[in-house]
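Hi Y.,

Following your request, here is the sequence exactly as I used it, all 465 residues.
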Amino acid sequence: MKDSISRPIARLDAALKLSGKAKYIADYQFENLLYARTIRSSEACAKILNLVIPPLPLGYFLVNKEDISGLNRMKTVISDHPIFAEDEVSYIGQPIMLLVGPDRERLWELAQKVEIDYQPMDGIFTLEDSEANDHAFTEYQISKGDADKAFAEAAEIISESYRTGSQEHVYLEPNGIAAEYKEGQIFVYGSMQCPFYAEGALELCLGWDKSKIRVIQTTTGGAFGGKEEFPSLTACHVALAAIKSAHPVMMIYDRDEDIIVSTKRHPSLVRLKAALDSRGNISALDIDLLYDAGAYSGLSPVVLQRGIFNCTGVYNIPNLKARGRNMKTNTVPSGAYRGFGAPQSIFAIEMLLQQIAESHGFDPLEYKMRHILKKGDKSSTNGTIRDEVLLPEIVNKLVSLTNYHEKYRNNKPFHGIGISLFLHGCGFTGAGESLIQGKVILRKNGDLVRILVSSVEMGQGADSI
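Below is the corresponding structure, written out as tokens. Let me know if you'd prefer a different format.
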């Protein structure tokens, strides 16, 4: 088995991608194709008072909220993001309407002539302001042991706070979607991670039965979470335009537009209070996580869940109180990003242990290893660790391979080394598995078994597994 796992294989998609023959969404050809351009808000928080549309040439038209036959909301975990803005806008770049026509350059010129009158309102732009105004979308709390007792008996109490910022995915291929309406069905093609998300969003937006909706993932040039729920919004836009025009419609984002309006990793503020015993070991933690969800909640509840579940990292903290909140700000909505909420809280716990060790004269790695989870310990959510944890063996191997201790103590400017420890759960939070109800099809032909699953290829090699 080891030889089979270790032996390299040729990726099935490698030749197509290396030769330039792979067909991305921008390579698709449609007869009588039209293009779409989004008219977006230039205000972060404002009422829309008036819209002035320039005279549109023959063959050009607009698509807005009035063209939605279903619900003007993008379906996701919390379906609160309008497909098109209604009476107000809540972040810069929020979609208000589309201009559609046969020439991209002409669309850009027409878009510059659209005039929108706003009545600006006071927005909220920081986690602290959102907290002060009690603008939390969601809140979760977990506990373990008796944290209050541990703090009352502590030899020392240390408080620290850590921040992480917004982060762009920078996938090689920008977002792009095409749609065509034929024989009473809508066909949507695009660069995406979750075609079933898009299908559900189209079902809600159009008010159609899903038997009339087909979503086809095209070759996807990277995603990293940035093409999880965001393509659902674009899919609804382009599908509405295709239905209204009875023409195929395509929208490929420019890189600058993609960066400005697509979802990002949640910025965070994590406050930690640690109770130390007489030996300097952590006996309890009190953790408060604030995640910046942006203007709409969307996927943020499940991102926060993973963040709070991972707030103690790989460490056995016997007593814990943790509170997590998603805060509303008038910024681009945050969404999925690799690690899905855990990197923010893991960064905070790693920094806390590093700083405690350094301030107390302990070797940081040795101090971390004092606290690691072992078989039989309880996780932050009181789950029992059932298997052997091989972290000591892994760390010892790393120390040996890197000459860690010598490099750590060399005190040379710009020459150093650090080791961060982390864990990652591959399952869904909450009742995700039961809600999703994924299907696997097995087909056996002699000694060959074929497994059919709905996993998408987005650069990670799923086509070759």
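The radius of gyration is 25 Å.

Thanks again,
Q.
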